[in-house]
Amino acid sequence: MVTVTSRLTRWVTVLVPGAFLALFFIYPVVSVLGRGLGRDGLDAFSDLASSGRIRDTIWFTVWQAVVSTAITVAVALPAAGIVARLSGRRQRLVRALVTVPFVLPTVVVAGAFEGLFDRFGLDSGAIRLRHTVWAVLLAHVFFNYAVIVRAVGSYWSGLDGRLEDQARILGASRWQTFREITLPRLRPALLASSAIVFLFSFTSFGVVLILGGPRRSTIETEIYRFAVTRSDLSSAAAMAVVQLVAVLALIMVTTRLERRRPVTVAQPQRASLAVTRRWLGANVLVAMLLLGAPIGTLIERSVSVGDRYGLDNYRALGERVQQLPAPATTALWNSLVFAVVATSIASVVGMLASVVVVHGTRWLRHIFDLGLTLPLGTSAVTIGFGILIALDEPPLDLRTSWWIVPIAHALVGIPFVVRSVVPVLRAIDPSLREAAAVLGAAPGRVRREIDVPIGLRGLVVGAGFAFAVSLGEFGATSFIPRRADLLTAPVALFRLLGTPGEQLRGQAMALAVIIMVMVAAAVLLIESARSSNEGSI
Amino acid sequence: MLEIQALVVRYGDVEAVSGLSLRVAADETVALLGPSGCGKSTLLRAIAGLEPVAAGAVVLDGVNLVDRAPHERGVGMMFQHHALFPHRNVAANIEFGLRMAGIDEASRRRRTSELLELVDLAGYERRDIATLSGGEAQRVALARSLAPNPRVLLLDEPFGSLDRSLRDRLVEELPPLLRIAGVAAIHVTHDHAEAFGVGDRIAVMTDGELAQAGRPEDVWSHPVSAAVARFFGHRNIVDDGENALLVRSDAASIDPSGELEAVVIRVRFCDGAFVVRFRTGAGTELEFILGEHVDVGAVVRLRLDPDRQIPLP
Hints:
The complex is a heterodimer.
Chain A: H1 4-37, H2 39-50, H3 53-85, H4 88-103, H5 106-119, H6 133-157, H7 162-169, H8 174-202, H9 206-211, H10 219-229, H11 233-259, H12 277-302, E1 304-305, E2 308-309, H13 312-316, H14 328-359, H15 362-377, H16 380-390, E3 392-393, E4 396-397, H17 404-426, H18 430-438, H19 443-472, H20 489-497, H21 502-534
Antiparallel strand pairs in A: 1-2, 3-4
Helix pairs in contact in A: 1-2, 1-11, 1-14, 1-15, 1-16, 2-11, 3-6, 3-8, 3-12, 4-6, 5-12, 5-20, 5-21, 6-8, 7-8, 8-11, 10-11, 12-21, 14-15, 14-17, 14-19, 14-20, 15-17, 16-17, 17-19, 18-19, 19-21, 20-21
Chain B: E1 2-11, E2 14-24, E3 29-33, H1 40-48, E4 55-60, E5 63-64, E6 75-78, H2 90-94, H3 96-100, H4 105-118, H5 134-146, E7 152-156, H6 164-181, E8 184-189, H7 192-198, E9 201-206, E10 209-214, H8 216-221, H9 226-231, E11 237-239, E12 244-247, E13 252-254, E14 260-270, E15 273-280, E16 285-290, E17 299-304, E18 309-312
Helix pairs in contact in B: 4-5
């Protein structure tokens, strides 16, 4: 018995997210492809290819991503091992602590490293880190440390530690035990999370743009420089096609690696052999230097005025400076409003899309699954560039519209919502729905009483991430016209960082601290919402 | 009264239930017993409307339910793993069915506390589902399925996930609760002790068909086939290729003038008696419950009560 209303609901459920993605994601991406593979794009491509510029850019993009991944794994793997041995509560605390850097906006992190180099005289002189590849690598390790520690750490704690005990009893040294027993078993988690780190480093934008300096280019920054700095849209489109192809291939590898789900024991036994104090101390020191130093220096720089400390930098944020179309405080307010609107859009679209992914017919499920994973991997730069060239003429001229920012941010946030809601919906025991039906709930009522309230718990987490992501979004927003009402805090920060001069630098640090605090507050709320849910789902 | 008439349920080409008929009186509990995979859970789900029926009828008080959706049947069901709603507390779980029926809040609250009292959980209204023990969750699930006063209650291995001692206790507690509720019940289980504990009648299901139904003592004493007999825990089934004979474990006594000579090969003490395993001259092994101890290796003569030997078709 299909009533008119339930048929209507079904159509809305499919059409709203479908139309949103088609218009604001697929259409722009197709426009990029059309432009890049059109005559102008191909001409630009052959020019770039013959000058060797494409080859150099791709080479740098790949090798910096490989090295970033290798260093991250080397530094984070021992920490993952320590986290795996911690008991529940401590493990959650450490996991939350190392996650803070991961969720910080790229511009803020770039600012923090600039502050660090500035503070310790590493911006010029004998040891120069500013505008070198080392700065880029350091920042990538800073970001992705959490990916390895979290993914490998939780996998590790699910492994049966008695095997290591047995190996030690049979005479293996610590190192032999790790190499012969632990490492082979960690392989699936290690491969999957390394692939993610590689993908993140490969598509990293803000970090390379700010910390790498003007001479270092990845595919991402090339798209930006061609499109925004030189207004050479054909060359930008050609680079964007290269990026799309590369990212598509990377996502396919990543999802395949992720799909190999771990076989873990239901009640893991922790290895009883303790971690030595020196080993623990070394890891805590690395984590503090790597993660703590940039953040600490950032805060210190933001309150230092000449030789003394004060809040002058913060006060100055209210003033209009020449480099910005509006005061930084306006940008902060804009960002908050954009984040609220973008989160609302992402929640509605993401929630409906999740329902389709879980309950839709087979071909709908496949289409949505794909259509929702792609924006996560497709770089924000490609999304921003696509919107720039696709939605710039009537009837859909959104380029000058205020809505363009929240829509772009929602696109970046939707995958987070879907990734939080879908597993929760999938985990609902079908017998709950059957029980509700037997107790007298009609199909629509079952959805309202069972799926919606349980799904909402996942939505809280996803919406929190979407909010945090919107607050810090830089890649897509950097393509948006420079106007007072469209100025976001990260874009303002980028402008301030790009301007030489002591005074603006202090203001930049203060702005970065405020953005960091707002994002951290959002993430802390998510973590508490998540841990209070854990007991009951 | 619930009448299942020639019911057929198919999964693709497989017939999970093949033309089964069964009647359950208004205040009767039928224990539906069968090995796993025999179709007993499928039968329950078909009665509740959760599986489509290929043929036959489910008639409740003269009305055929087959074309009705689950929520329009007025049938109660208790699921194997309780299926309590994790996002609602105990009271909200119990009053769910009442809310669906549009009953006002005051009546709902009254009925909820009445039911909690019935299942011995008075005062549990605000408890979170996650904090309940296995036995408590079981009782909340029972209260929830009884709340809307269903005319039929279907119980799908309701004690399957509980440990032995808790199961034994609930087997004792359930029949009086169902009697108070005055509901026709079908209780699915694969444990014959549980079936004998809760069922006014026992129905044995094998391969999608009803093999036998009747009062517990009758089906136990006169199983219709070797498979059914084995399923009740009968150990002595003598099959010479043409005829099968069930020798009940209470059929033998030691008597120097008995007709059967046998050697004792194992003795086990259980519930105040001895379970003794013998081997006869023909090499057949038989197990009997005896009141006295015998030594392993002893050769004794046994007298067999002809009334406790049942030919199996």
